[in-house]
Design goal:
alpha+beta; 4 strands
Length: about 110
């Protein structure tokens, strides 16, 4: 029974090609899922000029999800940070969740 984690990240869509390439370089990388998302950064970090800006400040983002062995988490997390960073506000965040169950849909097999 191998402990598994879910790694999630919110990143800029334009960084996805670099991220994909970086993750593919990791030996035994398990794969990823991504979804389109929208969001805004912490309001205290941004100076708004107009009411319209306040109401339309959502920007496109990508949420990346990876399920991996515990041992791979630091490598994957660092690859996400390195490939996704521009040094600007709005680069995104990455976090890790514990998994208490994981089953293959094809045959119901437990993967934990």
């Amino acid at each position: 029974e191998t402990p598994m984690k879910e790694i999630r990240a919110i990143v800029r869509p334009q960084r996805l090609p670099q991220l994909r390439e970086a993750l593919r370089q990791i030996p035994n990388f398990p794969g990823l899922t991504f979804t389109k998302a929208e969001g805004f950064t912490a309001p205290a970090n941004v100076v708004k000029r107009t009411v319209k800006d306040e109401l339309t400040d959502y920007s496109p983002k990508i949420m990346v999800t990876v399920i991996a062995d515990d041992a791979m988490v630091p490598i994957i997390r660092q690859a996400i940070i390195d490939a996704s960073s521009t040094g600007q506000i709005g680069d995104g965040i990455v976090w890790t969740l514990d998994l208490d169950s994981l089953h293959r849909i094809r045959n119901g097999e437990s993967m934990l």
